[in-house]
Write a sequence for this structure.
């Protein structure tokens, strides 16, 4: 149960390092499960995580952390300064739930109609609080400065960006960032790593096609925005299939289309909402112009006008290769090489990307699936985790806290 120690220790410590594991005591495991279930029963949406943030702040304070509340609205930062010199690192957990009604009947089912921890963020908070307790117990081993960052509003509202705009990096001097996401794609307790791009960028488009309304029997006297929108919806797929390098993943999805009121009236307008994903910053940068060019052509052909808005949301989540190699090697020491895997790329997005744009960073996955009950996709109303995954998350976060400030590249 010795902890990973860098090359700074004695020969004895060095030999211990190679086989080092972190034992998470049963009382901590039990506590982490209790926290997770309590948060699961009381889910809160983005920037409304007042109860969650209060629990986090109280626990950190009781453990001796310096606590900063209201960072990026409902965010909480717990700071612990080590006795030894080292970098300032952050470990991040996101706190928000989703506007989904849970359909599972377990004892810790969501008590809030229409809100649910369907992505595992309850587990992320519980894991980081468990690690906070273990780290506080070993404060004498801590080097540098540790910032535990409990972030609001990961689900679409960009809580990471809001914390950064609130001075997260300047106020705390953060030099390295690490975070994890539970994953129902992978077996319980397995840690997944990937160098470079891991999650896609995610941007939004909002379009209004402006035609001329008229009688459904007289299209020649109108400019039909529904027909025009329909040509755009099919033509815009040519951006990915004909204009982007086929070796570069990209997606354009029109997810909403609203127009018209009845059978025989050509409406004036048609509105569309869509999402745009890419895995490369260069590809992402080309998307607004390419999409608008198709829109302009479709509208020109029909004689319609348009409004086009491209909303930059989450960048590509790209892991620093050196940090990832370091974290992966550390993980092999903590949970065993056989429980470390290559994580697949995902077209989903993560606002951890904003941290990774600022400092060398590594975001990794923790498998939490052990059967039908725990293999539902994230954001499903049936989503649940195998809680036996939590200890490995606690161990890995603790190892990073105790090791990275001195030994990460
Ligand atoms: Ni998530």
């Amino acid at each position: 149960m010795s902890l990973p120690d860098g090359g700074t220790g004695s020969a004895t410590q060095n030999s211990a390092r190679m086989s080092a594991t972190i034992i998470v005591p049963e009382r901590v495991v039990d506590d982490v499960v209790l926290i997770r279930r309590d948060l699961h029963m009381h889910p809160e949406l983005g920037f409304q995580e007042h109860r969650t943030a209060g629990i986090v702040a109280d626990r950190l304070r009781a453990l001796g952390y310096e606590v900063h509340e209201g960072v990026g609205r409902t965010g909480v930062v717990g700071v612990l300064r080590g006795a030894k010199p080292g970098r300032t690192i952050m470990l991040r957990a996101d706190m928000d739930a989703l506007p989904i009604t849970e359909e599972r009947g377990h004892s810790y089912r969501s008590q809030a109609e229409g809100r649910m921890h369907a992505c595992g963020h309850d587990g992320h908070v519980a894991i980081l609080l468990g690690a906070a307790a273990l780290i506080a117990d070993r404060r004498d081993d801590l080097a540098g400065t540790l910032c535990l960052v409990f972030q609001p509003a990961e689900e679409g509202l960009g809580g990471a960006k809001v914390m950064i705009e609130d001075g997260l990096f300047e106020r705390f001097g953060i030099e390295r960032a690490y975070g994890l996401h539970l994953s129902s794609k992978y077996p319980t307790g397995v840690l997944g790593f990937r160098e470079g791009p891991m999650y896609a960028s995610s941007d939004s488009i909002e379009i209004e096609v402006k035609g001329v309304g008229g009688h459904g029997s007289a299209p020649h006297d109108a400019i039909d925005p529904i027909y025009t929108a329909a040509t755009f919806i099919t033509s815009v797929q040519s951006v990915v299939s004909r204009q982007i390098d086929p070796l570069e993943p990209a997606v354009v999805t029109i997810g909403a289309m609203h127009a018209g009121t009845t059978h025989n009236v050509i409406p004036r307008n048609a509105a569309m909402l869509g999402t745009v994903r890419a895995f490369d910053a260069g590809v992402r940068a080309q998307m607004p112009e390419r999409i608008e060019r198709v829109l302009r052509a479709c509208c020109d052909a029909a004689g319609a006008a348009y409004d086009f808005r491209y909303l930059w949301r989450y960048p590509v989540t790209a892991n620093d290769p050196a940090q990832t190699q370091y974290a992966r090697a550390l993980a092999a020491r903590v949970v065993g090489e056989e429980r470390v895997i290559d994580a697949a790329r995902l077209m989903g997005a993560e606002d951890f990307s904003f941290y990774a744009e600022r400092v060398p960073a590594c975001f990794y996955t923790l498998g939490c699936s052990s059967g039908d009950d725990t293999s539902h996709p994230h954001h499903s109303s049936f989503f649940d985790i195998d809680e036996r995954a939590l200890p490995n998350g606690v161990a890995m976060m603790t190892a990073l806290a105790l090791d990275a400030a001195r030994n990460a590249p």
The longest helix spans residues 281-302. The chain has twelve helices and 16 strands. The pocket of nickel (II) ion is lined by residues 119, 121, 154, 181 (CB under 6 Å).
